[in-house]
Design a protein that fits this description.
Helices cover 44% and strands 21% of the residues. It is of the alpha/beta class. Strands 3-2-1-4-5 form a five-stranded parallel β-sheet, with helices on both faces.
């Protein structure tokens, strides 16, 4: 049914739990897995006139976030490999994680976006915002939302 599934992760415990469920789902479908970590764009400190010497350069920031993103992707990619799935990982940069997830799903010809949800409702959802809700409203692709009722152990 699905050939290529994008699994989005932010490195949180909820996201790792969701990614494991996504790999299992992909295995059931016999689908390829693309794991995506979206890091924020580099921000220049606009609140000071002179950039402090300890503030990372844009190049240092990009290298560091590639490393951090790779660390978040690694266990998910290892799980996909152990499951015998074709897999790849990508660290992307964007100010809007939701829009970048949608764009990557389109660019990489993914059939499905697999994401998590904390299961918050009411004011918690409104105040915190939700990347998942934004993805749902910005894509024409199917989105499978893995909802957690209870926070997983770290």
């Amino acid at each position: 049914m699905y050939r290529k599934i994008l699994i989005a992760t932010d490195g949180s415990a909820v996201s790792k739990h969701t990614a494991c469920a996504g790999v299992k789902f992909a295995q059931q479908m016999g689908a390829e897995v693309l794991v995506l970590f979206v890091a924020p764009e580099y921000q220049y400190p606009v609140y000071v006139e002179i950039i402090p010497p300890t503030y990372p350069s844009e190049e240092e920031y990009l290298v560091q976030m590639q490393r951090v993103g790779g660390e978040h992707l690694r266990p998910i990619l290892e799980s996909a490999e152990k499951s015998g799935l074709q897999h790849s990982g990508l660290v992307a940069f964007a100010d809007s994680a939701a829009q970048r997830i949608v764009d990557v799903a389109d660019e990489q010809d993914c059939d499905l976006i697999f994401m998590g949800s904390h299961g918050r409702s009411g004011w918690g959802q409104i105040l915190l915002g939700s990347v998942t809700n934004k993805v749902l409203s910005h894509t024409q692709k199917p989105v499978l939302v893995h909802r957690l009722i209870k926070e997983p152990a770290a």
